[in-house]
Specification:
single chain, mainly alpha, elongated
Length: about 120
């Protein structure tokens, strides 16, 4: 007959990788997302900010700084990039079970959105 006092209960142990998050990978994904966002924002506003003292040629798309209609478009895409950056950092640092897949997809989305934003502002 089994006595409960004789058997000690030990909870099942998780594997080491499941218990401890991979922080270096998470911080790397957050840093890559930040770098992509900064490069994208710099490119957007380099195109959008008007410059003085230069000749603007009548070509399409207009050279950087020669079209005032780019400012609202750059502002909208900037908000989108910042929101995507916040989602990417949140997924990398706080979603431990889905970190790798969500972070990889979010980084890919960041690159695609930054490219689309640059093209949209260029042709605005």
């Amino acid at each position: 007959m089994w006595l409960d006092e004789e058997r000690s209960y030990t909870p099942p142990m998780l594997e080491e990788s499941a218990r401890r998050p991979l922080w270096p990978l998470a911080w790397l994904c957050a840093a890559l997302a930040s770098i992509i966002a900064l490069i994208g924002l710099a490119g957007l506003w380099w195109l959008a900010i008007p410059r003085t003292g230069g000749v603007c040629f009548a070509i399409y798309p207009a050279p950087p700084g020669c079209s005032d209609s780019r400012i609202p478009v750059a502002a909208g895409w900037s908000v989108g990039l910042v929101v995507l950056l916040i989602v990417n950092v949140w997924a990398a640092l706080f979603r431990h079970r889905l970190r790798t897949a969500v972070s990889a997809l979010s980084l890919l989305a960041m690159v695609i959105v930054a490219g689309l934003a640059y093209r949209a502002v260029l042709y605005a």
